[in-house]
Amino acid sequence: MSSRQTPSKRSGGWSLAFTAMLAATPLAASTPHKEFMSANEAAMIKMMVDMDIKPSGDVDRDFVNMMIPHHQGGIDMAVAQLRYGKNEQLRRLAQEIIVAQRQEIAAMRLAVGHPLPASNPSPTTPVPHGSPSAAHHGQEH
Question: Per-residue confidence at 8, pLDDT binned at 50, 70, 90?
Answer without folding.
Answer: very low
